[in-house]
Design a protein that fits this description.
The protein is α/β, with parallel strands linked by helices and about 350 residues long. It has 2 domains: about 5-155, Glucose Oxidase, domain 1, CATH 3.50.30; about 160-355, Rossmann fold (3-Layer(aba) Sandwich), CATH 3.40.50. It has 8 helices and 20 strands. The chain has helices at about 40-45, 110-115, 125-135, 160-165, 190-195, 230-240, 255-260, 350-355; strands spanning about 5-10, 15-20, 30-35, 55, 60, 90, 95, 120, 140-145, 170-175, 180-185, 200-205, 220, 250, 265-280, 290-300, 310, 310-315, 325, 330-335. It has a 7-stranded mixed barrel. A 6-stranded mixed sheet has the order 10-12-11-13-14-20, sandwiched between helices. A 3-stranded antiparallel sheet has the order 16-15-18. A hairpin with a 5-residue loop joins strand 15 and strand 16 (about 290-300). It is globular, with a radius of gyration of 20 Å. The N and C termini lie far apart (about 60 Å).
């Protein structure tokens, strides 16, 4: 019988959820958010957009298919993960499967969490916890083992999370003749894979790097965590790029930063969109897509200038899911067209971008 240690999740309203540890035993704090996807925990945990957050997985059984190997391709991109490491501060689930079975699994989720020093809790009523988060919005929380004061609450949105997860140096992935500058705000590796398989050379630069001194055919602004208001350096560099007519494509944080560069505003959503099943409609059409999403902020449609218009809208709550310029080759999506771990309904947006180059 395994020796399982008791652990508590404490929310900033004083609510306490008690469970059992299956990860690394250390106190941690962050913003508590939930994801309603049924599968894809290896991809979610390694998504840099979760930096600073404690992730609640609403699907009741987690861990039953283990974790794929840590391997990298010739471009030094992770074969099965979305980055080089786990980015969540902690994981909260209902029922942990101590036994796993999958053709590609090399170890358990618990072993992986312990290896990367990430706490995990099971035995929590995640339905009740998710209801509380839906009623109150995303909340600050902390995971403690010995006493309630082991660690203080932290608001990750007060810290520049993009600076934490962005690359530190320029990385070039040589492919075709067309060159894309990718501003790394916390890019998922599958975004880079999607661009490379379309035979484009990708020049990946840090979030605050002035890429306008480089020679390129198109600009890509990646996803990333936290508050877009803390990325003014990126916004200013995008504004410089807008003095030319080169194609621009942004995803997730890239949507928000492109909007801010155009003069629009963003705001924090009550509890964000984190799932594989968010329906969005392309404006001006009856085309609706099921999308993968992970964001806590949104663009305010009412602040878009006359030169810009919404491109997609969320069918659940009417929030912005993308913008486009009415005359220039500039557009963005709030959702994830690369969609690891799915669905892939909107990957055609990469084709549209590459065809503009």
């Amino acid at each position: 019988m395994q020796n399982i240690k008791s652990v508590s999740l404490i929310l900033d309203d004083g609510t306490v959820f008690r469970g059992k540890s299956f990860g690394y035993e250390k106190a941690t704090a962050g913003e508590v958010v939930f994801n309603t996807a049924m599968v894809g925990y290896p991809e979610s945990l390694t998504d840099p957009s979760y930096s600073g957050q404690i992730l609640v997985i609403t699907f009741p059984l987690v861990g039953n298919y283990g974790v794929p190997p840590r391997s990298f391709n010739n471009d030094n991109l992770s074969t099965f993960y979305e980055s080089e490491k786990i980015h969540v501060e902690g994981v909260i689930i209902s029922d942990y499967s101590f036994e796993y079975s999958h053709w590609n699994a090399t170890r358990s989720l618990a072993a992986w969490l312990k290896e990367e020093k990430i706490p995990g809790i099971f035995g929590i009523d995640t339905r009740e916890l998710t209801k509380r988060l839906r009623e109150n919005g995303s909340m600050k929380g902390k995971i403690v083992f010995d006493n309630d004061n082991e660690i203080d609450f932290i608001d990750p949105n007060m810290e520049n999370q993009v600076a934490r997860v962005s690359c530190k140096d320029i990385i070039t992935y040589e492919r075709g003749r067309k060159r894309i500058v990718l501003v790394d705000c916390g890019v998922k590796h599958n975004i880079i894979r999607c661009l490379l398989k379309r035979d484009a050379t990708v020049v990946r630069v840090p979030w605050d790097y002035d890429f306008n001194m480089l020679s390129y055919d198109g600009l890509f602004i990646s996803n990333g965590p936290g508050n877009p208001d803390l990325c003014n350096a990126t916004v200013e560099n995008i504004r410089k790029a807008m003095k030319e007519d080169k194609p621009i494509f942004g995803i997730c944080m890239g949507n928000q930063l492109l909007a801010k560069a155009s003069g629009a505003s963003t705001y924090k959503l009550k509890y964000g969109h984190r799932s594989h099943n968010q329906p969005v409609r392309m404006i001006g059409t009856d085309r609706c897509f099921i999308t993968s999403q992970n964001h806590g902020f949104a663009v305010d449609n009412n602040t878009l200038s006359d030169e810009w218009e919404p491109l997609f809208i969320n069918m659940n709550d009417g929030t912005n899911e993308g913008i486009r310029h009415k005359a220039k080759p500039w557009f963005s999506a709030q959702f994830h067209p690369e969609a690891a771990s799915g669905p892939t309904d909107t990957e055609f947006l990469f084709d549209e971008f590459v065809n503009m180059l």
